[in-house]
Specification:
The protein is of the alpha+beta class. It is built from twelve helices and 16 strands. Helices cover about 35% and strands about 20% of the residues. The strands form three sheets. Strands 1, 2, 3, 4, 5, 6, 14, 15 and 16 form a nine-stranded mixed β-sheet that branches. Strands 7, 9, 10, 12 and 13 form a five-stranded antiparallel β-sheet that branches. The chain binds zinc ion (ZN). The site of zinc ion has 5 residues, from loops.
């Protein structure tokens, strides 16, 4: 039996391991808050009957032996790091439901045919080293030493050094890499982070694919001038040029549909109220599940840089990261749908607008995701998933794992 009490207690205790008490949950990887959460998660895995080990990146893995323990395991879990002043559910919901599923198996005396492994990933959010999905990248062996050395936190400490200081073994990552065939399947439960399930009153979301995520940097150069003495027609205002670009950028995403365009960070130079901006630097983020639309967005930004949309300005553009859209496994979607239906829960197949460790896992094994409804989205202290929603998610996850591990 899935225990709502244990699930709620785990969520409540894990939310106390924060660097910002009173202002949401801030649990960055390889910090003392993370170490406390790590201890708690390891203990809970042991109580659930799992044999616990640590991956060289710090990912925590608990294993339930299968009847045939030589078979490739079914893996489930999510991340337990957070953004700065984030909430108590993003990531953690997938960790505690995975542990609870295993705990219920132990209580029922259910022994799966295949081994089942529960994983709690480190550094998914990229909040500390500005390198998202680092834990799962390490698990599948795609994390190079160069990347760990160049991924630095705001204090200049790189991921490689922080990992070592926390007692992990980054040099052993390549020899522990999981490849195709090493896992039978991966399933991640996560809060939806959007309003769809909540608004529709749907109990379980079945993720069909994860958006392509693209993130780049644009610099617009014009000429700084006196804000009072320079007539409007004599200016080369970098910010005005950027504004024209941005309006077209947003409009294109709207026109394409199923596409988002975001400018989330901007610096204006010299940054004075009485000076015409001479330079503007900003980020562009664009996402879609459809790679044709992604290409249109990419081409638009590139062409704008080649032919700036305002006289006199110059534009430079470079991409910082590009992740293709990830289709999740059809069969696992059907299993989740069947199991949720058997429990009497309403379901909806839907894409994921946010990135997840499941993207990396999908490159090595059939992968599925279960969404549960949440209010106030995510990445803020108010994010919330009800006890009932988490319990329902845990039940669907447990039955899905049983089916996949047969
Ligand atoms: Zn998350």
């Amino acid at each position: 039996m899935i225990s709502r009490e244990r699930l709620s207690r785990d969520i409540e205790i894990l939310r106390t391991f924060t660097a910002t008490p009173g202002s949401g949950v801030t649990r960055l990887s390889y910090t003392k808050e993370e170490a406390l959460a790590r201890e708690y998660i390891k203990n809970r895995m042991q109580e659930a009957g799992l044999t616990v080990r640590e991956h060289p990146t710090g990912n925590i893995i608990g294993r339930m032996a299968g009847r045939d323990d030589s078979l490739a395991p079914v893996m489930t879990g999510s991340h337990y790091d957070t953004v700065l002043s984030g909430g108590a559910y993003d990531g953690v919901a997938g960790v505690v439901t995975a542990i609870e599923a295993a705990h219920s198996f132990k209580e029922e005396g259910f022994v799966p045919e295949r081994p089942i492994e529960v994983i709690a990933f480190v550094e998914e959010e990229g909040s500390r080293f500005h390198h998202g999905l680092l834990g799962s990248e390490g698990l599948i062996g795609n994390l190079t030493k160069e990347a760990m050395l160049s991924a630095k936190d705001n204090g200049g400490i790189c991921a490689y050094d922080a990992m070592k200081a926390a007692g992990h073994d980054p040099d052993a990552i390549p020899s522990h890499a999981i490849g195709k065939g090493d896992l039978h399947a991966f399933v991640e439960l996560h809060i939806e982070q959007g309003p769809v399930l909540e608004n529709e009153g749907t109990e379980i979301g079945i993720v069909t694919c994860i958006n392509s995520m693209n993130y780049g940097h644009v610099t617009v150069k014009g000429r700084a001038d006196h804000a009072g003495t320079t007539p409007m027609d004599a200016r080369v205002d970098a910010l005005r040029g950027a504004a024209v670009f941005m309006e077209r950028f947003y409009a294109l995403a709207e026109a394409l549909g199923n596409t988002t365009a975001t400018v989330g960070k901007m610096d204006v130079y010299p940054g004075s109220a009485n000076v015409v901006p001479g330079e503007v630097a900003f980020t562009v983020d664009f996402r879609s599940t459809d790679m044709t639309r992604v290409k249109r967005m990419h081409d638009f930004v590139r062409e704008s840089a080649d032919n700036p949309p305002f006289p006199g300005i110059s534009m430079e553009f470079h991409m910082l990261s590009e992740a293709p859209a990830t289709d999740l496994d059809e069969e696992i979607q059907s299993v989740i749908e069947t199991e949720a239906g058997a429990l009497g829960f309403s379901t909806k197949r839907m894409p994921s607008g946010a990135g997840h460790d499941a993207m990396n896992m999908a490159t090595v094994c059939p992968t599925g995701m279960i969404f549960i409804p949440s209010t106030f989205g995510s990445h803020n202290p108010k994010e919330f998933a009800s006890e009932e929603a988490i319990e329902k998610g845990a039940k669907v996850l447990a039955n899905t794992l049983k089916r996949l591990a047969k």
